[in-house]
Each structure stands twice: as structure tokens, then as C-alpha cells.
Amino acid sequence: MHYAHSTKRADRSDWQRLLDHLNAVARLAAELGNKFGAGRAAALAGLLHDLGKYAQAFQIYIGGHGPSVDHATAGAQQVLKLPIEGRDRAIADLLTYAIAGHHGGLPDRSAETGSLDERLEKKLSPLDPVWRNELILDATKLAPTHFRPHPDPARVPFQLAFLGRMLFSCLVDADFLDTESFYAEREGRQVDRHWPRLRDCISNLIAALDTHMADKQHKAPATPVNRLRAEILSHVRGKATLERGLFTLNVPTGGGKTLTSLAFALDHARHWRMHRIIYAIPFTSVIDQTAAIFRNVLGSDIVLEHHCALEPATADAEDRFRNGDREAKLRLAMENWQAPVVVTTNVQLLESLFANRPSRCRKLHNLANAVIVLDEAQTIPHHVLRPSVAALDELARNYGCTIVLCTATQPALAAPGFGGGFTISPERELAPDPARLHRALARTTQRLRGPMTDDELIAEIADTDQALVIVNSRRHALTLYRAAKEHGIAALLHLSTRQAAIDRRPLLDAIRSRLRDKQPCRVIATSLVEAGVDLDFPRVWRAEAGLDQITQAAGRCNREGGRQPDDSIVTIFQPAQARAPSEIAGLIGDTRRILAEHHGDLFTPEAIAAYFREVYWRKGDAGLDRIMVPNADGLITPVQTLQQFAVSSGRSSFAYRRVGDGFRLIQNGMQPVIVPRDEDTERTLAALRNGLPPATAARRLQPYIVQVPPRDHARLIRNEQVQYVDDLGDQFPVLTAMRLYTPEVGLMWEDADTLGIDEWLI
Fold first, then answer.
1. Overall pTM surpassing 0.85 (yes/no)
2. CA–CA distance, 530 with 516 (Å, rounded to integer)
3. Hey, what domains does the chain have and what are their CATH numbers?
């Protein structure tokens, strides 16, 4: 008898038979792969993924004797020995990556160590020949049905590599789920992975949204803005029966994009019987608000909120998984996006599309046949823009997805103007005449102020009861706030990502309350308030930045249209005492270059399109696809993602691991610190030390996180002002020097080398 998984019972009476595991994984992988026409290929991967467990050496190891055994490579080698012809040979090649990497991650074809080529040539322990009688292998019709090659032949290798990652997703999720089920049954645990199917509950969800919108419109005053929001909602929902694919939703800030896009997604999903709705948001500072809105409308048992800055910083957990640590396997069984509505971040979505690790890839198959709404689509970082567009296009082209690019500042991503961009016809714009909407929703007057010192800025906000100032860095925001406080400015608030979300939420509530009650309110903030935060100030000052950021900032001025545009001033100024961050400086130049042509109204759709064309021209091909990876000498060097996937003479050369390690939306290396602000945090940390699953703890601790520059993070660790939770590697860094944090200004990591009185005591 051959076994796949063991328990503590010496008589092996409750061990999992290998044949049972292989057949179960094959069935489940086929079910997952059928969503995009690749069920047969996924099933073959499932049958062969643990073929190496038929080796006597592995059976000795699983019995508690002998060293760990490579059991993944045998199946990869066997795939290439099967009698496969035609297009199926290319699919079999993809399966070798998936099977060989189903524990450690998708490998590179060639590399210094651990390459697929090296493993395919590896000499392995012999297998018990009985496997040939036990496994029924069908290696025919592996190629997905209805696969559409890209019109540009140069893009086809990327498409094949993408398919390989999707097959890998089916395999690793099926493997995780069957393994989890086996151990849960043996240990008498209930695994609650039940989510309602979108198809079964969507009519109720639409009815709930209709009720919410009717109530909202009934309570709203009959202003021109509210009438226009109702028109936009009706027009957008009227397009829900259009064929699945790519759409844009170009609505000015304040036009009700969030609920309008949700309404379209629900109507569209019902019409086309789609599996789920994915709502991707660029900023963690906004995701809590959006998820709360959706839960309030649809119900908490429908919406999964998935964003976490506390994922393992190293591959340690997955290394333990590869080495047979069963508890690590169960801890890695994280969310695989089975919920009908998922609210997540661009980082989670886009980095997963280029990941190679099982824990990040296992959710990918659940993107098939989904409506994916990219809120604030213009915020996709430029250095990963081309590969991100390619991946989203592929989801729409071959995986039944609908992609909605939802923003007030629509980026110019359509081909042929954007090389390799989306093919989007005019009728795929969901909004009714974006140019007219801009004119109708124009609520501000722009003021180009030029250079301003901090004192000049403080003097201006002192004369304004309700004022919002947005600057480009946390350092400048704090400096300006302290200077304004010294000047005796009343009703002054500071808002930045120095503060944990748990403290930003009451601040935002207080700001809204003061604005609503006509009380003095002067806020100095970073750009976190620009996208998706519903604030309505009469005056806004915005430090020079990219035009899309300035437009978003203007959306916080006269948001509800209750004032005259002439009285709602957006002042664009050049800080005289703060240098713009390097990533902002180039965008400032791009904005200045289009001022002459669009002076007077910088926020028109034409001005925005011209701005993005200027940005993309300046960046060039290399600037729109650039990730940093180690070269053969260990030096960090830039490479282009799309060039890491090639096919030559019928042989693939895919650098899955290289891309997976290097593809990061945020390149500044910011590191999380948990601020234990209250008893809830302390209870979660105590439970974590006593066995609470790290994934559960990470979700609970998310609101208490502050992201810190890497050099300062290292200093906090070195000074023992931040310490890691024992036995969990570097996943949970906890602030111990609470004197460095206040809700007013947040975490002062700059003071890490200054000892408090308690730290002087010995």
C-alpha cells in the first residue's frame, strides 16, 4: 500500500492512500480548470503531481524514517514521456512547470540552481511499477477549448505562460483543499469554506442594492448633482447586457462611481451567469470604507475583504510546507477567493497574476468568469503598467472575464496609442458622454499659485474656516502641521499613513461631522485622502503633482455641488520648502507641459488623455515594464517582465520565479509595524502566541499597521523598539516603544535613536 499523507497512528489505519489523493486532486483540479476549458490538462496534472510518492524512499520517509524525498519531479518527467502530439505538446510542457513546482513554486526554465531543466534531467529513486496499473492517464485534448491567440504573435508566449500559471493555480488549490480535508476529518475539525454561489443569490443582492439606492435617492436633496448621479446609474445599468470583455467607466469625482460600478457588475454577472465580482482598490486606506459600504448593502456573509500587509516576508512557511510540515500546510491554506464578492487591493490582484508561489497563485482560477472592477485604474504603477495591461487583457480574452476600468481620470491605455494596449470600442464606455458629465459636474475653479512657503500656506488656511491641504510626503505633512500648530491655527487635524487605520477612521468621521455642521476644520494630509474618501471642503490646496492626483484632490472640493464654482477654489502650488519625491517630480513636469494647451480647465477628459500620453511617451517602453531582479552575479538589475516569457523552436523558456520575485507594485520596500493600540490588539497577539492561525491574526491586525521605510524599520528592530513575535519568523513586527506613536501624528520612526525615560532605566 502506498500513502500520500500520514497521521500519528502507527498501524496506518487512518493514513491517506496515495491513489485516493491523486484521484481526488485530479477530480477537483479538473472542475477548477473546466471554467476556462482546461479541465483535462488540470486533471492530468492532478494525477501526476505526487507520482514520486510511489518511490520506496518516500514511503520509508513518510513512515518516519530516512530523509525527505523529492516527490514532485517524477511527475514532471513522466509528462514528457507520454505519447502526446500536436498542440497538446505545448500544454504538456506547461504541466512540467506546474507539477515540478507545486510545493516550492513555479521554477524558471533555466537558472543557476533549481531550474526546470535541471530537474527534468535529475536522477530519481525508482518508482514502484504498480503506478502504471493504478493510474489511468488520458493525455488527449489537453489544449483549452476556444483559446484565442493575441493578434500580435509576439504576445503568444506570454499567453502560454499565463495559461501555465492558471493550470498551476488549479493544481495547488486542489492539492491544498484535499490535504486540508483529509487532516480536518482525522482531527475531527470542521472546515468552514462555504460561501454562497453568486448565481444562487444574485437576484437577492440586486434587490438589496435597488432598495438601498431607492432609499438613498429618496433622502437625497433634488440637486442637479443628485439628478445627474441617478442618470449615470440608469445609463450604466442599461449596458449590462453587452458582451463580456473590456469596459471603461469615465465619471468625474462625485458622480457615484462606487455604487454605480457595483450595480453594473451585479446586473452584468446575472445576465452572463458569472461566478464572482472582484473589486480592486489601489489604496489600503480606502479599502475598509468600500468593503464596509458593500457589506452594508449586500450583507457580511457575501463580501470577502482581502488585503494584508502581514504576509510572510520570506519563503520560510512555504519551505516548511515543502519539507512536509503539516501545520505549515494548514496555515498556508489561506483565502482562495471563493466568495461571491471580493474586495481587494491592486497589489493583491496584480502581483498574484505574476506570482510563482503556491500561496499567491492558488486563487487565480477563481478569477475566471468574474467581473473585475479596477477602481482608480490610473493608479497602476507605471513600471508595471504594460505587463498589467497584458494580464488583464488576457483575462478578458481567454478566461471569460469582464474588466471595468473605473476612474475619473481615465488613463490612455487603448491601442494603438498605447502599444500593446486594450482594444476598447467607443460603445464600451459605460458613462453617458464623459465630456458632458465633466461640464455638468464641474464644481471648482482652479488657481495656479506658483511657489508658496509654508508660512504663506498657513496664513491662507488661517483665513479659511474649512480648508484641506494635500502635500506629497508624510514628512512635509507633519512639518506643516507642526508649524501651523505653533502659529495657533485652531481646529487643526493631521492625516497621513503615519497613523494606523484604526486611528484614521475616527479622524475622518470627525472631519465629516465638522464639515456637515459648518464647524471650523483645517486638515493637513497626504494623498491618502484623494481617492475614494468622501470629503467635501470649500477650499483645497494641492501641492504640484501628476494631473491625475490633482484632479482627484479637486474631487474633495465642493463634492456635493452645494456651492458656486467661483467660491470653490482649488489652489495648485509649488512647495518652496519641500522637494517633491523623485517619483512625483517627473509627473510634475508632465503636468506643466500640457498647461499651455489646457489652461483654464485642467480636468477635462481631453486634458487627462493628453497628460497620460505625455507620461507614457516620457517613460518609454522600458519605463512602463521594469522590474528589479538579481542577475547571475547577484547584482540587482532591471528587466522587462514581458521579455521573460519566450518560446523558440517549440521550446518554452519561462522565468516564472524570476518574475515572481521581482514583480512588485510598490518598489520602495516599505515594511509593516504593528502598533498595539488597545486591548483588542493585545488579545490578538496573545492568541497568536498561543496558536491562533497567523492568517486569522494578520486580518485582525491589519487596521493597526503602519508602513515604515526599510532603513528606519531596520533601526527600530536594531534598537529593539520593534520586536517580532516568537517562532513566526519576521511576519509580525510589533512596536514595543509606544512613546514613538500617538494618534495625533502617528509613528515617529525618526526618533528611534532617542531613548525615552523608560528605556534609560536599568
1. yes
2. 19
3. 3-187 (1.10.3210), 198-434 (3.40.50.300), 443-602 (3.40.50.300), 671-760 (no CATH)
